Automatic annotation (TrEMBL), chain A:
Gene Ontology molecular function terms on file: heme transmembrane transporter activity
Superkingdom of origin: Bacteria
Principal location listed in the UniProt entry: membrane
Name this protein carries in UniProt: Heme exporter protein B
Record-annotated membrane-spanning stretches: 23-41, 89-114, 126-154, 161-182, 194-217
Family to which this protein belongs: Belongs to the CcmB/CycW/HelB family.
Automatic annotation (TrEMBL), chain B:
Single GO term (MF): ATP hydrolysis activity
Ranges where the ABC transporter domain occurs: 4-230
Organism in which the protein naturally occurs: Caenispirillum bisanense
Keyword list, A-Z: ATP-binding, Cytochrome c-type biogenesis, Membrane, Nucleotide-binding, Translocase, Transport
PANTHER family membership: ABC TRANSPORTER I FAMILY MEMBER 1
Full protein name: Heme exporter protein A
TrEMBL record, chain C:
Location of region: Disordered: 46-84
Main location: membrane
Residue ranges of the TM segments: 15-36
Name assigned to this protein: Heme exporter protein D
Automatic annotation (TrEMBL), chain D:
Keyword Transmembrane: yes
Annotated localization: Cell inner membrane; Membrane
BP GO terms, sorted: cytochrome complex assembly
Descriptive protein name: Heme exporter protein C
Signal found in the keyword field: no
Membrane-crossing residue ranges in chain numbering: 20-39, 59-80, 92-111, 123-142, 154-176, 196-218
Recorded GO MF terms: heme binding; heme transmembrane transporter activity
Encoding gene (name): ccmC
Organism field: Caenispirillum bisanense
Biological role stated in the UniProt entry: Required for the export of heme to the periplasm for the biogenesis of c-type cytochromes.
Primary localization class, coarse: membrane
Highest taxon of source: Bacteria
Its membrane topology: Multi-pass membrane protein
Family named by the database record: Belongs to the CcmC/CycZ/HelC family.
Domain Cytochrome c assembly protein positions: 11-180
Length: 222, 231, 84, 239
């Protein structure tokens, strides 16, 4: 079981690194979109600071969705998915492996880039620590939920657009509590409740999403 | 490759199998049984359900009716165990262009048998005469070489039941002979093979399953008739 | 009667609400009805065209064709062949 | 014995129910409208706008009811592979979306006189908006595949994932709403509903349910006819 998990994480990371890493594209999108906001809402520090948490979370959410539709697409087209769905290793574990690899190539870079961009948006330094912590707990949940969407749109017409319609409504709880955690930190209010709830989402997603993704993959392969 | 017989091989059978793809009944009321050492050759025109039957046997496709059993026990109860004791070779070769042959085969054999070592991979490739391709990335392989790398997975992670969907496409005469030899050796060790093909593959003593015998008129009238016959 | 339509000054909000609900439900019903009628008409045409061979013939023939495995393989093939 | 996709038994049942459902819809709708618009008192605080509630609240109930029904049907379809429940999910989704849209539109018309703006990020309306997106996602996914079976199965999994997320989204939106929204003066469903208002509310609710049954059965008959047309034309292709 664990061997299967390790094998697939290693394989997917190797694939990601050799195929021109998505991480660069994801982080570039994240930086670019955040940089657009001052042009939109004006450079006044006060406004930017007030919306900084929201901007960072929304753009991170969109960025992590970018590379989702390729999560299973190549395996679906070259027949690897057939072998995976029927293999002795439980499909849920393999999906968890692929999601971990996806998080390492997208969630982690976003996490590292977030504080830098927080400076651009003039966020109060008190919020940086919680921002990174909230990203650490929130972005894996985004990858887990996104994997369900990616499996559902396999072989669909215009899968990319459809994926965002399916997945974005499910991202709202993470967005709400992620932003409120950072806002609370900036105003020196307790953040424990929000982080615990984000943790709750993570464990719920880690338990349910691989199973739902496996079900979606099995019916996609039929 | 390793010479010990398959102790977990048992009679693999299917009763009253039916398969629906889209609104079309591909086949209905199909029975088969396969004892250790035996082979089944699936023949029939395109679209008669050869691939669908193989995917049903591989557990990839849920049959609309009927059930598969392994040594008497229903397969559906423990699909992962069925995955462990059978290998499925489909139309696609599942080879990543960016990974080398060693990584491609090694990944699957470590997933299936926990042993993804280079030695195992090398032995499997040698059986197909492509040991020299060990560190060649997938994108440089020809169709025939990709097919041989795909087939070498059968040897890298041995399992009693082989489900081969037109394994000899894109293979030259010499390699087909190699495949026939390996199948014979596999059966000699108590393994079982189900193989669909358009070209002639020598499978001595194999049971022939004509898919045409199990097609059913497709429209709803036929559907109702098929149902009365089955209920 | 006039004050009924006036709705205590809120006519501009009550009537449009009911209006929207009525329009949405009516449109949905009309689309559903039209979808149903076109599909069932096409089905009737197809079944009529398909039924040129006397229906009795297929009914008589159906059990044999549907359960070929009981009889010798050779015999049902032509029955099924004729059917297609 | 597992039944193939044999719709004929279902068709007989549907054709038997349809006239009754259609009749009930008309009667209940007329009675509901009469009680909503004429025979019920105006609210001392909201005046006549309370009459909008008699459409808004039943529509909101239907929006949730239909999504839950779809999720149950999807579970049945995935576990027992029962084709009729797939058809139900495909037929019910647009009706649920229509009711959600009605709930949103009437909510806006209700909010305008009270809060002065057409759209208010009130917890209930926001959750309704997200539910509307879940419906759109379900319908889009259902029709995004060439093979209808793929559409059915993918949408079934989505409906199950969605129904698990609805309470979580509701919880998050309520928290978000209390965080940013000063306690709104008038709650959406007004002060405690006094009995005179219950009759129109219930009549309209049942009228909507009868309408739902009628339209879903009609849509399912349409789907079955489409499936038969596909089956026959496919059989001519494959022979």
């Amino acid at each position: 079981m664990i061997a299967g998990f390790g094998a697939i994480v290693a394989r997917d990371l190797r694939l990601a690194l050799r195929q021109g890493s998505d991480s660069l594209m994801v982080v570039t999108f994240f930086v670019l979109t955040v940089v657009l906001f001052p042009f939109g809402v004006g450079p006044e520090a006060g406004i930017l600071e007030r919306i900084s948490a929201g901007v960072l979370w929304v753009t991170a959410l969109l960025a992590s969705m970018l590379s989702l539709d390729r999560l299973f697409q190549t395996d679906y087209e070259d027949g690897s998915l057939d072998l995976m769905t029927r293999g002795p290793a439980p499909l849920g574990v393999l999906v968890l492996g692929k999601v971990t690899a996806h998080w390492l190539t997208t969630g982690l870079p976003l996490l590292l880039a977030a504080p830098v961009l927080a400076v651009l948006l003039n966020m109060n330094a008190a919020g940086f620590g919680v921002l990174v912590l909230a990203f650490l707990i929130g972005t894996p949940t985004l990858s887990l939920i996104g994997a369900v969407g990616a499996a559902l749109v396999l072989g669909a017409r215009r899968g990319g657009v459809l994926l965002s319609l399916l997945v974005l409504p499910l991202y709202i709880p993470v967005l709400v509590f992620g932003v409120s955690a950072v806002d609370a930190a900036v105003m020196d209010l307790p953040v424990r409740a929000q982080l615990l709830i984000l943790g709750g989402f993570l464990f719920a997603a880690a338990a349910l999403c691989p199973w739902a993704t496996a079900a979606a993959l099995r019916q996609a392969v039929e | 490759m390793t010479d010990q017989a398959f102790d977990d091989a048992a009679e693999f059978a299917g009763r009253g199998l039916a398969c629906i793809r889209g609104e079309r009944i591909v086949f209905a009321d199909l029975d088969f049984s396969l004892a250790p050492g035996e082979a089944i050759l699936l023949l029939g025109p395109n679209g008669s359900g050869k691939s669908s039957l193989l995917r049903v046997m591989a557990g990839l496709l849920r049959p609309a009716a009927g059930a598969l059993t392994w040594g008497g026990a229903p397969v559906a109860e423990d699909p992962e165990a069925h995955g462990g004791r059978s290998r499925y070779i489909g139309h696609h070769d599942a080879i990543k262009p960016v990974l080398t042959v060693r990584e491609n085969v090694g990944f699957w054999s470590s997933l299936w048998s926990g042993d993804g070592s280079t030695a195992t991979v090398q032995r499997a490739l040698a059986a197909f005469g492509i040991a020299h391709l060990l560190d060649v990335p997938g994108r440089w392989l020809s169709a025939g070489q990709k097919r041989r790398v795909n087939l070498s997975r059968l040897l890298a992670a041995p399992a009693p039941l082989w489900l081969l969907d037109e394994p000899t496409t894109a293979l030259d005469r010499a390699t087909v002979a190699v495949v026939e030899g390996l199948i014979a050796e596999h059966r000699a060790r108590g393994g079982m093979v189900v193989l669909s093909t358009h070209t002639d593959v020598a499978l001595p003593g194999a049971k022939v399953l004509q898919m045409d015998d199990f097609t059913v008129p497709m429209d709803w009238a036929g559907l109702d008739a098929a149902e009365e016959a089955l209920s | 009667m006039q004050d009924f339509f006036d709705m205590g000054g809120y006519a501009g909000f009550v009537w449009p609400s009911y209006g929207i609900a009525a329009v949405v439900l009516a449109l949905l019903f009309v689309f559903t009805w039209r979808l149903l009628k076109t599909s069932e008409r096409r089905l009737a045409q197809l079944q009529a065209a398909r039924g040129r061979r006397p229906r009795r013939d297929r009914a008589g023939d159906a059990p044999a064709a549907a359960a070929p495995h009981e009889t010798a393989p050779a015999e049902p093939a032509d029955a099924a062949g004729e059917m297609r | 014995m597992h039944r193939f996709a044999n719709p004929n038994r279902f068709l007989k049942l549907a054709n038997a129910i349809l006239p009754w459902a259609a009749g009930a819809t008309v009667i209940l709708l007329l009675a509901g409208l009469y009680f909503s618009l004429v025979a019920s008192p105006e609210d001392y605080q909201q005046g006549a706008t309370v009459r909008i509630m008699y459409v808004h609240v039943p529509a909101a109930w239907m929006a949730l009811f239909v999504y839950t029904a779809m999720a149950v049907a999807s579970a049945v379809a995935l576990i027992w592979k029962h084709p009729v429940s797939d058809l139900f999910a495909k037929a019910a989704s647009p009706v649920g979306a229509a009711f959600t849209f009605i709930a949103l539109a009437t909510g806006a018309f209700w909010g305008k006189p009270m809060w002065g703006t057409w759209w208010v990020w009130d917890a209930r309306l926001t959750s309704m908006l997200i539910l509307f997106f879940l419906y759109l996602g379900h319908m889009a996914l259902m029709n995004a595949f060439d093979d209808p079976q793929r559409g059915f199965r993918a949408a079934a999994v989505l409906a199950l994932v969605g129904v698990v997320n609805v309470p979580i989204i509701k919880f998050s939106v309520d928290w978000w709403n209390t965080l940013h929204q000063p306690a709104s003066v008038v709650r959406m469903d007004g002060p405690a509903i006094d009995p005179a208002m219950m009759t129109p509310l219930l009549l309209m609710a049942f009228a909507f349910k009868a309408y739902f049954v009628t339209v879903v059965l009609l849509r399912m008959r349409g789907e079955i006819a489409e499936a038969k047309v596909r089956a026959i034309s496919m059989s001519q292709v494959h022979g």
